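hiii, so i know i said id send this last week but things got crazy w the move. better late than never?? heres the sequnce for the chain we talked about at the cafe, plus the structure i predicted for it. fair warning i was half asleep when i ran it
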Amino acid sequence: MTLGKRIGRYPVIREIGQGAVGTVYEGFDPATGSKVAIKVLRAEHLPDHRADSAASRFEREAQATRRLQHPNIVAVHEYGEQGRIKFIAMEYLHGRELRTLMRERGRFALDDAVTVTLQILDALGHSHRHGVVHRDIKPSNVMVLEGLQIKVMDFGIARIESAAFTQMGTLLGTPAYMSPEQLRGLPADGRADLWAAGVMLSEMLVGRNPFAGATALEVTRNALTVEPPPVSALVPGLPPSLDAVLARSLAKDRDLRFHEAADFAAELVRAVAAAADAVDLELAADAGPAAVDLDLAAPPAGAAAAAATLPLPARGE
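okay and structure toks below
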């Protein structure tokens, strides 16, 4: 498709990416003048069974994302068909995939990793409240914009409550971020998304996926059987208070995990606040009794200070 063509009502500016069954174009909305990303499915050259699967995933992505209106979820403007193609017009994002930043940085600073994770959890909480389980949360499905704002993308294999095309008990996703129940082919609920968020938090902090392996089979075995070491033992300077949060988020038994994204976020904020309190007390002790007395007379620098500087999870719709 070339400049001057239209997809639906959207003039095409340029091609910006290709996948196995589709292409993404930059276009603009003539009604608003704003840029849009236009994702086009081209399944006509695939075998029938693959074409049907691709079409179902495409429709699922459109239906799932249009349910959701959240600053940390990519916005879908329109799902449509033009001749033999299907397309989704969505928010145009200026940013890079979280996977790219992970490769560049190796490890994230604690505050950056927490900032990213809290936004992901806020997006997941909104999604789950609206009956949508993503099922493929991973770094390549998270776009990082200016100021470390994130957008969760690609709901192509989402489980949608009451959706006729929901595929329950089917192995869909990326093994390195799939929960044990998904790897066993069991139905996935929101706790599977929270598992993936925990994997990404651990990976940002340590610089390596906690279940990394040489093959997909080894990754699967690790996720099912291996308990990752505490992050505080792997990276000097990381607070031990994080270990319990990650251990719960990565529990093999989903009943032992966080059941709600807001609970995960609140525990993460408390863990960071506890670490800040510990540092304050250590510095005060090193400075001597006079400093301790002065600190006690000043406003508390613990959980309230951490809450003021960290983006707390929103509980509204």
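btw The two ends are 39 Å apart (CA to CA). thought thatd interest u
miss u guys!!
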